Q: What sequence folds into this?
C-alpha cells in the first residue's frame, strides 16, 4: 500500500499563475517531507523540504504547506514559469526505526506551464 | 550537475548477460543509495550503504548484487535479469542517514532487458 500518494498525474497551468501540487501520506511517523523536480533524461533534483514541526516553508517562488492533521502537503509555485514544466515528486522520511532516512516517494505529478 | 555521476546512461542486455552499473559521488557524502523507477510506479528504494556498510536491502532479488568499495563509489552488478527488470536505475547520495539530510541523485541508467 502506498504511503505517499500524488493523486493527480498531471497539471496544466498558464504562465504567471499559481501551480498547486498536492500530496497525501498515511504514515504519521514521517519527520520530513521533500519535493523533488525531474526533467526528462535527468535524475530528480531537490527543490524544497519541510520538517514535521513546521506548517510552512518558503524559498523564493516555492512554498510548501504541511497539514499534519489531514496528512496532506502541497507545493505552491508562484508565479509559474515555462521552465517549471517537469515531473514533481513528493517524498517523505522518518528518523525512527530501521528505515531511518529512507525516502518514500509518490508517483509524481507532471506539471506543464503554458506560455 | 548534482555531483553524482552514473555510467552507462543507457544499457541493453540479454537475459543471460552480466553487466554492472557504476555510480560515483563527488560530494564527500557517506551514504549512497540505489533506486529503481519502473513505468507508472514510484521510485523504489533497493539498497542503502552508509560508510561502505549495507544498511538496507529492500527485498531485492539476488540477481541484483550491490557493491560499495568506498564511500564515493557504488556498483550494481546484474546477472540473469528478466524483461520486467527494465527500468531507470537511479543512484543517490547524502551526507548521512538522518532524515534531515537531503539526497542528491545521479541522472540514472536506462536499462532494457531483452
A:
Amino acid at each position: 500500500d502506498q504511503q505517499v500518494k500524488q493523486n493527480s498525474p498531471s497539471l496544466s497551468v498558464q504562465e504567471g499563475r499559481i501551480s498547486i501540487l498536492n500530496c497525501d501520506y498515511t504514515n504519521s511517523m514521517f519527520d520530513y517531507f521533500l519535493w523533488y523536480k525531474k526533467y526528462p533524461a535527468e535524475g530528480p533534483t531537490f527543490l524544497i523540504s519541510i520538517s514535521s514541526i513546521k506548517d510552512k516553508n518558503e524559498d523564493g517562488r516555492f512554498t510548501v504547506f504541511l497539514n499534519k492533521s489531514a496528512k496532506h502537503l502541497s507545493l505552491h509555485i508562484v508565479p509559474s514559469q515555462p521552465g517549471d514544466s517537469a515531473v514533481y515528486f513528493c517524498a517523505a522520511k522518518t528518523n525512527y526505526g530501521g528505515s531511518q532516512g529512507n525516502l518514500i516517494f509518490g508517483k509524481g505529478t507532471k506539471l506543464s506551464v503554458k506560455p | 550537475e548534482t555531483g553524482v555521476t552514473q555510467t552507462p546512461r543507457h544499457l541493453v542486455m540479454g537475459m543471460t548477460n552480466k553487466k554492472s552499473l557504476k555510480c560515483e559521488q563527488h560530494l564527500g557524502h557517506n551514504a549512497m543509495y540505489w533506486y529503481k523507477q519502473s513505468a507508472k510506479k514510484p521510485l523504489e528504494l533497493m539498497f542503502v550503504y552508509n560508510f561502505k556498510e549495507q544498511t538496507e536491502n529492500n527485498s531485492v532479488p539476488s540477481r541484483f548484487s550491490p557493491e560499495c568499495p568506498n564511500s564515493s563509489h557504488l556498483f550494481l552488478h546484474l546477472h540473469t535479469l528478466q524483461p520486467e527488470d527494465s527500468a531507470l536505475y537511479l543512484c543517490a547520495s547524502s551526507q548521512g542517514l538522518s532524515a534531515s539530510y537531503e539526497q542528491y541523485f545521479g541522472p540514472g541508467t536506462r536499462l532494457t532487458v531483452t
Observations:
- DSSP finds no helices and eleven strands in chain B.
- Chain B touches chain A at residues 2, 4, 6, 31, 40-43, 45, 48, 56, 90, 92, 94, 96-108 (CB under 8 Å).
- Chain B has a mean pLDDT of 92.
